[in-house]
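To: structure subgroup
Subject: Chain for Friday's discussion

All,

I'm putting the inputs and outputs inline so they're searchable in the archive.
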Amino acid sequence: MIYNIPFIAVVAMIFIGLYAVVFRRNLIKMVIGITIIECGVNLFLITLGYREGGVAPIYTSLPEGTQYPSEMVLPVPQALTLTSIVIGVAVLALMLSLVMHIYKQYGTLDVRKIRRLKE
């Protein structure tokens, strides 16, 4: 059961993020929801690459007696997660800049009011 805690956390984070995106009308809260979903996906990738007792796949600093590659963690999920974090920061900055422009244009962050103002 304790091994499933990260997967339960992943599911909880994704559902919390989806709830914020679908049921909240404030644009900032929707951006926060998307960021929570992204964090859940990153946690999922890290959880997939975890190997109990494994060491980081840095060949120059392997401890004595480490067998290659059975005692090393998987490097691909770590690289994907790092790439995802960098892309996520860029997307977050883009979303927040769009929210700022929408607020300057319409004077509100409520999606329902913005839809009414467009008509």
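Points worth raising on Friday:
The mean pLDDT is 87.
The longest helix spans residues 75-106.

D.
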